[in-house]
Amino acid sequence: MSDIPAILSVQSHMQLPRNDELIDTMPCPSTTAMSIERTRGEIARIVNGEDDRLLVVVGPCSIHDPDAALDYAQRLSEIKAQFENTLCLVMRTYFEKPRTTVGWKGFIYDPKLDGSADMRTGLIKSRDLLLNINALGLGTATEFLCPLNALYIADLISWGAIGARTTESQTHRELASALPCPIGFKNSTDGNIQIAMNAIKAAQSEQIFCTTIRNGKFEAVQSTGNQNCHLILRGGRQPNYYSADIEQSVVLLKSVSLTTNIMVDCSHGNSQKIHSNQVVVAGSLCEQISSGQQNISAVMLESYLEAGSQKISSTGNMVYGQSVTDSCIGWDDTCQTLDMLSEAVVRRRNLSTTSHTLPIELSRSAV
């Protein structure tokens, strides 16, 4: 341990590849890079109200088995085309998990699920999975938790989240201000949306912070600010997906000149952590959308091949395609929910068209 300065109290350490080394070793092909850029643009237009489709970020609570995750991605990519006129589908690929106390911190930290903390393998396999999913033409989403880990994968991410526990963090606001993809900020775990609004304001602004870009050297950088940030309602002590919650959020967002296009997380506080309730939440959102609610522009679903969740097993005897963190809805419920959301967008679009037809015709007649 003599090679580590006596600044930190550590019991072990592992040499990791520099972020630029890993990116150079596992580069993003030009066709994939163009696909990612296109998806980011589509998402930005949706969250800024320039596209009336619904952004749907859907996938497992966390990645723990790359094979099952790629299986899910292939299924999602196969049905993506049938929804392309109503839904923008992006897959959840969460490699880090914030813990209230302790627990499995995610695939990047412990890819072998055995406490061995082989972060080198975790970073490599995470990037490999993202390359494979993006190669399908399917955009990926993640929660940015550790700012240094973000440097290994951010070029492959189409949409990112700053979670309820980190939205108030200055470090994460600085990171979001420099990220190349649209970012959603969740309300705090107690349901406070003011914190998320403050975070959006901060992330839209230029920020000076310390990071490493190439050669492993740390630099002071000034970000450009990220104009594609938005609010995520994830519930708190009680759900906040009801029409009154949406309307109140819109009023508050307008008061500080922020985008009023909102994502609703159907899981977490809104589902009361009961995975099957996600379908109920989505149903309520569909009713609101069908009635003409324009401010619901995005939805998040925790979904996997198999419903429910399981404990990590030391014997390796685990259910294929089932979450090891929060419980998820299964594939069949996922498909039905996507159908429901798509139909709601069509109804909203038809309402909007009908409401504008007469004034437009009268205007033309006047001319």
UniProtKB/TrEMBL annotation:
Taxonomic superkingdom: Bacteria
Domain DAHP synthetase I/KDSA: 45-336
Entry's Gene Ontology molecular function annotations: 3-deoxy-7-phosphoheptulonate synthase activity
Pathway(s) per entry: Metabolic intermediate biosynthesis; chorismate biosynthesis; chorismate from D-erythrose 4-phosphate and phosphoenolpyruvate: step 1/7
Enzyme class name: transferase
Gene3D superfamilies, alphabetized: Aldolase class I
InterPro entries, A to Z: Aldolase_TIM, DAHP1/KDSA, DAHP_synth_1
EC number(s) on file: 2.5.1.54
Catalytic activity: D-erythrose 4-phosphate + phosphoenolpyruvate + H2O = 7-phospho-2-dehydro-3-deoxy-D-arabino-heptonate + phosphate
Keywords from the UniProt entry: Amino-acid biosynthesis, Aromatic amino acid biosynthesis, Transferase
A Gene Ontology cellular-component term: cytoplasm
GO biological process, alphabetically ordered: amino acid biosynthetic process; aromatic amino acid family biosynthetic process
Keyword set includes Amino-acid biosynthesis: yes
Family statement: Belongs to the class-I DAHP synthase family.
Name of the molecule in the record: Phospho-2-dehydro-3-deoxyheptonate aldolase
Protein's organism: Microbulbifer okhotskensis
